[in-house]
Specification:
The complex is a heterodimer.
Chain A: H1 3-20, H2 32-41, H3 54-63, H4 68-78, H5 80-99, E1 106-112, E2 121-129, H6 131-201, H7 207-241, H8 266-276, H9 278-299, E3 306-315, E4 320-328, H10 337-402, H11 408-443, H12 483-486, H13 505-509
Antiparallel strand pairs in A: 1-2, 2-3, 3-4
Chain B: H1 4-16, E1 51-52, E2 61-63, E3 66-81, E4 84-91, E5 100-103, E6 107-114, E7 123-125, E8 149-155, E9 160-165, H2 170-175, E10 180-185, E11 196-205, E12 224-227, E13 238-241, E14 245-252, E15 258-262, E16 267-272, E17 275-276, E18 283-285, E19 287-290, E20 295-301, E21 305-311, H3 336-343, H4 357-364, E22 378-381, E23 384-388, E24 392-398
Parallel strand pairs in B: 1-11, 3-6, 5-10, 11-14, 13-24
Antiparallel strand pairs in B: 2-3, 3-4, 6-8, 7-9, 9-10, 11-12, 14-20, 15-19, 15-21, 16-17, 16-18, 16-20, 21-24, 22-23
The chains are: A alpha+beta, B mainly beta.
Amino acid sequence: MNDMSRLWRVAVLCVGTASLAACASLPENGGRSGALQYATDRGLVVDSQADADTQHLVHGLLDKPISADDAIRIGLLANARVRSVYARLGIAGADVYDAGRLSNPSFSISAGFGNANADDKVTFGLAQNFLDLLLLPSRTRLAEGEFIRVQQEAAQDILNLAAEIETAYYRLVAAEQIRDMRQLAAKSTNISAELAGRFFVAGNMNRLDYALQKAAAADMAFSLRAAETAARVSRYELNRLMGQTAAPQWAVSARLPEPLDDDPDIEPLIAEALDTRLDLASARKAVEVLADSLKVTRQFRWLGSVAVGVDHERESGGKRITGPSLSLALPIFNQGQGAVHRAEAQVTQAEAAVHAMEATIANTVRSSHAELVEARQRALDYRDTVLPLRQEIVSETQKRVNFMIVGVFDLIDVKREEYNAYQGYFEAIGDYWVARATFARHIGLKLKSAEALSVIEETIPNQDQHHGHHGQPMPTDDAQPVADHTTQHDTDAHQGHGEQGGHDGHDGHGEHQ
Amino acid sequence: MIFRRDFLNLTSVAALTGLAAGSAVAGQARADAPSQPKDGQTTRRPFTPVRTLNGWTLPYVMNDGVKEFHLVAEEVDHEFAPGTRAKCWGYNGSTPGPTIEAVEGDRVRIFVTNRLGEPTTVHWHGILLPSGMDGVGGLSQPHIKPGETFVYEFTLNQHGTHMYHPHVDEMVQMAVGMMGMFIIHPKDGEPEPIDRDYVILLHNWALHPGTYRPDPSIMTDFDLWTFNSKIFPAIEPLVARSGERVRIRVGNLSMWNHPIHVHGVQFAVTGSDGGRWPKALWRSETTEIVGVGQTRDLEFVAVPGDWAMHCHMSHHTMNAMGHGTPNTIGVDQSGIEAEIRKMLPGYMAMGQHGMSEHQTHVDMGHMPGPDNTAPMMMGKGPFGNFEMGGMFTVVKVRDTIAAGDYRDPGWYKAPKGTTAYRVSTNPNYGKPVRRS
């Protein structure tokens, strides 16, 4: 066999070896399915639409009043953060790809031009880094571990985004309800001031009392405007989270349901949270990967670069020399101590991060639960105690107006206090659902959203309604002499206002997985 | 039952207070179960027994020439008018307490049992008696403690219209209803025979709307004004036959003086708790102010018809109403009323042209009031709404009422031509003269 064919045989052998080496390909779908699987396992619902359909789908959703789930869907499709998360996955995927590949062999060529006594020479060389080959399985394993970690992190980011959208949604509904109550309250002070004007014109009220009435109306206008602005700001925030740049034209459903009466034991949930939280899993994975990396670093600390190759020299006189080459880094000045120490420190750092995260998770689960419980209790106390009392106060005051024992201004004042109580109630309900979404995020889950748990009316409540229909109670016209509103001293109170959501506690027990 | 030992105690008390021992002999005395009232039961001349509107006269037992009465001071459940009840304090189950009726010269013995939760006494307002019988707690006698029974005994040496009431924690006990009338007929009979002798005790109550117990802390701003603890329309009418001589005895233990006005007659103010006045001191009036603590006898000859009789303080002929409320007269609420009804569907703009419409609305039932509260204006007559309350009633005189018949004869049918009648519904009718 001649030299050339020997050379090529060696080369083919190298390439063959290389191709037999464990060769990771680019992760399927950029790794998105894997990441999303983590998220859907924890309750997130994700569209599987192809990218081309998203615009159409999003516009379709925005044309009708949106629910919290709709907002989450839209956000996951349109918010650029998701693309950024996927890009990060892509980077990690590329790392996996690279990790599973041998570095390309290097080919060298040099030419020498002899003088009269020497022949011209051409030298060819082909070298392959063989440390790669040794490290390939470890490197691949590490990169795959890191990829999983990044997938978990990405899934957590998506869950976080969903939670932000959900809470922004609830805040918006609450802000709109609060604004509506402020409108009713402002209307009442305006009516009172206008009525005072009639008394003034008739000569029955003096300037001072009239001015006091007008001042109250003027003050209320500020608080109304503040509430209107707050609702608008909440709207723009949700618009942002849904990834929309154009001015929002969409509408949200008008009401949130009443709090659920599920109240799980918190300590077992903390144990579950520590298992479920993806960012914790990701941090633990980081420890795992770094520990593995430390092992590898220790294993190969004596090894520098190793290159194996073949050289072939050609002289003009027809001389041919071919032979193998070896290049080896000698661990004389550096035996890899630095690298090992660095790796050890990185492991310690990662472990510390895990412990810190565990403490944070446990305590934020507790604190968000405490807030959830407080908000629920506040909402129920409004519904069962404060609102019925406020209605009774209005009803009893109306009776006194009927018998000319007090005047109509006192009646309007107590009606306004009823509106204020309703505002407190809506605030409490909004706080509850926000706290619940926050709590879910801290446990590491996506619980069912408010509307998924009960039926909601889509219409904006008007102030003439007698009953809350399927929504929660609304300010009612309770001065009627018939029994349904005026005889409420006990928990039957909420019967007259429509039962809604309150019985869905049964759903709530199955919530957590 | 008075047992022998207790009776001996009473005897010794009587001895200490200087009473004749012979009057306190145990005999047919029974402290419980008074006998039926016997009209004119005395050795003196007969008299027309008084009629206490909505009330009653306390029966007595004759015990060896002494008229024995028994008052029980206790909490009572009292109805001011249907739909308005309260826990009050009174005597023998009622407020005012039963009228004590006796004759000048009678010796009376009055047992007083205290079933209140605090001490009490009884003061015999305007009656001449020994100092120790005067009933001022701490001054005349020890307090009658809860559960105790005291006995008062004295001879009546006067005649006239008198009252009795507590003199311990007097303000509170009176404010919640403890008072009664004490009528003493003259020993020689009436110089002018009285055919109908009515008794009315004036009072005021702070029964705040929606409550069931009068509030004794109120000094001037009362809710209910009463004749014998009743408000119109629950006050009985004063019934008489045409031509009868009617006397109305008015006592006042409220916190206001009351100008009592009788329609249709000029009455003579003929006496007080100072006794019957000589004719030269009689005053001819149609309205007599009965001051706090005073009594007045008003006499007139009954004239046929239905005649209003009331306190002329116009707020005293209203039931509970608001004071200092916004004045709605002349206030045009058109347009804005509808806006208010959107917030408050039970709201009705009232009073632009006064309060007369109020009774109509309340009677129609679509404007309920607070619990236990009478509307301020009530009552229906043959021609429409009275729009009255409080200290208001009607003197009903008919040609055909039998003597001694006190039943309500219904409404007066005026003879033809003697009722005011309408001549036009056109506001521009006629040529009335005006000041320009």
